[in-house]
Amino acid sequence: MKNSTRKIKVSILPESSKAETAIYIHIPFCDHKCVYCDFYSIIKDDKAQNYFDALRVEIEHYAKTYSGNRDIHTIFFGGGTPSLVDEKQIKFVLDVLSANFNLLPSAEITLEANPGTLTPRKLQAYLSYGINRLSLGVQSFDENDLKFMTRIHTADIARSTIRLAKDEGFSNINLDLIFNLPGQNKTKWLYNLESAAELPVTHISAYSLMLEKGTILNKMVLDGKVAISDADYDADLYELTIEFLNSRGFHQYEVSNFAKEGFDCRHNKFYWDYKDYIGFGTSAHSFVNGTRWWNYNSLTFYLNSVFEKQHARTGEETMSPEEMINEYTMLALRSSGLKIKEFTDRFGIEWLERNEKLIRELLENEFMVRSKSTLKMAPKGYAVCDEILSRFN
Ligand code: SF4
């Protein structure tokens, strides 16, 4: 979206209200590096406890500034593979958080896990700590895909892990899938979607394979060892995904996310609804009152910085009003839509007036829908979301 120099009314929050805040904890340890992965992760070793000591220092440091007048609505343990570390280390972090922040009793607490790393004892421990949502990195139910991606699990292990989690008491389970893998025809992708929908999951995230610089997969493609299908084929698989998951009762509430009624991921909605979040750990990002900052994505730098300065912030930016509007509208339109009253209370009416003609055209051509007070993408619009967003100014 283009920038403009017009004056815009921006209010962050009414003075009297408690800021709704999400917390992200990055656990960077993995069993090995998957070929396509560009998240910050390292192979787990015996020094992991240092990391948790540093997390405590960092949490206590930011709590001095941010714990007052804030309610914590969600916590998300991401990675890396949080389920790989000793469950007591997860409890340690939750104890430090609850001693320093006001965690709401109704908070959504998610832990990312890899199939094959969970046991009944671990699952029971998580439940007893208040973790109420699991997100499982399944990626595919095809053995060849899993081998290609160098995942540690098989399709059967993924199935049995999800059933085990359900039997042990988890009623809110997400499963991640990746589409447009090399050699993945429509039949194979449909098989993956069917396999996912048959399991006791409440949420499915379906991402197109991204080639990221610095990954082994990117080098394989550059060396001509692997071919990735083009954007048109990717769009076909994506349309198939939307159609199939809608037909199985998973409504789309963001470009890549589908949920059963009542199971939208509350944590992710904090990012998309432009609410405050504080991230702790290597490579974690935070966004508070229009300022974004991020941590070192190196364990050594992170540990040195935290033990010296109590934080590991390596960069920050404060958004201009126009940048905030652009980002807010982009995030809202990629997810559950622009809530018009909330938007105009916060930013004024000018952006809507400026884009009125385009919005009318998108509504008439059924790329967008307007329901009650919300303006959002129609399924047809999600499929070409990036193209549509580039037309707003
Ligand atoms: S398990 Fe996840 S975070 Fe770890 S290397 Fe594989 S894709 Fe990356």
Please give a structural write-up:
- The chain has 393 residues and is α/β, with parallel strands linked by helices.
- It folds into 2 domains: 19-272, TIM Barrel (Alpha-Beta Barrel), CATH 3.20.20.70; 338-393, no CATH class.
- The chain is 41% helix and 23% strand.
- It has 16 helices and 17 strands.
- The protein has helices spanning 48-66, 87-100, 120-129, 143-148, 155-168, 186-198, 216-222, 231-247, 266-272, 299-309, 321-334, 340-347, 350-354, 356-364, 379-382, 385-389; strands spanning 19-27, 29-30, 42-43, 70-79, 103-113, 133-139, 173-179, 203-208, 251-254, 257-259, 276-280, 285-288, 291-295, 313-318, 338-339, 368-371, 374-377.
- The strands form 4 sheets. A 9-stranded mixed beta sheet has the order 9-10-8-7-6-5-4-1-11, with helices on both faces. Strands 12-13-14 form a 3-stranded antiparallel beta sheet, with no helix packed on it. Strands 15-17-16 form a 3-stranded antiparallel beta sheet.
- The longest helix has 19 residues, at 48-66.
- It is globular and about 60 Å long.
- The termini are close together.
- Mean pLDDT is 92; it is low at 1-16.
- The protein binds iron/sulfur cluster.
